[in-house]
Amino acid sequence: MIDLTKASTVHIGRRGEHHFRNIEFDVASLLGDDYPGAALSAIYKRPDGTAYPVVTNYADSVLTWSPSATDTEIVGVGQLEIRVVFGDVVGKSVKVLTIVEEALVDEIVTPPEPPAQEWLNQVLSALAELDIDELNNLLNLTYNLLNDNYALLNTTHSLLDETGDTLYMRTGILLNHLHPIETATAPDMISRRASITFSSILNGNNVVIGTVTYTFVTALGSPAANNVQVLIQDTLRNTVKILAKAIRGVEDESNIAYGAGTDPNSICTAYWTSQRFSIGSTTIDAGESLFMLERAENSTSAIALTSTAPAAINPFARISFLRYLLSGNVSGSGGANSVRGPLHTVLPIGSVVIGGQGGLLYLATYDCHLITLCRQSDTSEKELDFYISNDEETFTRLQRSTPIGSNTSAESLHVDIEMRQARVPAGYGLYICMGSDGTSSSAYCDLKFTYHLYPTSLTTDTNN
Q1: Which residue of 217, 250, 295, 352 is most buried, as measured by CB atoms within 10 A?
Q2: What are the C-alpha distances in Å from 431 to residues 161, 177, 275, 282, 290?
Q3: Domains, the chain
């Protein structure tokens, strides 16, 4: 319904329509309470300028107009005005714009004659000149292009899937870094650690850890309960590596024979390293060593650790820091001749696992995000480099020249240095080397390293 108090535009039909539409106008505003419906009339001005009254019907304050073929004869924009004529009173509504839309004319014409024979002959002649082989080639080319497009769409779909997977993983990595599933510190005081460094191993030598005896043999047999046989390898290094596996309970029937109650050792885990490391303030020089970590937490029971092989043993102890000796320092004005010291093991190969050493030893990707300087022997300028390796033959530098230090050498400094670095792949060990502008080769830093662990689902992204 059209409100006559507002300017309006009305589509009254298509050319030639006749009483097909009923257009209703609300005329209450014109009549009010003063005039009867009989006083209403409507004047229509067609698009060609012809104006005339049109037939309308009135009921209940609604005036209805049904345009005839005369009204819709001319296409274009016209006007309609509704008037109240009562005695000598004349009232007019706002002009309503009307639109007649185009439509097909109603004339019927005779269909065209069929094509002349001459034209048909020309068409047939043109068809006869077509090269069928060329058409086949064109069709084959079109088919191949369609196949190429199909393959391209498949490739695009695959790339989009890969992009989605990558975004999902990267988002997971960021969220895990902000809210890690597990954070650990090395060293920590919740469990104890120990070490044993071998200078040689002979047939019949043994290592005792708790109640389990590990015996080195040249041929495996069937060991008794609480006994494990470890096959001597071609080198001392490889033999120590096999011993580390035996302590962790790795299945290796060619090199390890387990007795009852020994798979794995219930007291500790063990990891091989050939680099320098420390147990608290005790520095263990580079050699063929086992880095041993207690499985239990907050335990105070004594742990037996002995060996009949020529070896240096550091018994299990609760350690709160790692000591790095700045042995690269040498005399010279302002430390001009001082260089980096040797690589120093922080986390041995394969030792970073979800759930701690008492769990199932699932390897985890990790990143070291915090270094704590516990104490230092002097206030010289110091720098630290991070390295990683999965074989201790090839080392990759992960971070270079991180400043370490404080303006005091007091006890319990606890200076935190936040780190930003790439994630370390699962199974890789973490190593440091340090240098300073000092001149004392006995200078040291006591450090702790805090690191985030990532779940298995986030360990396969190589672009980290």
Answers
A1: 352
A2: 37, 21, 9, 17, 16
A3: 2-101 (2.60.40.10), 174-189+320-464 (2.60.120), 192-319 (no CATH)
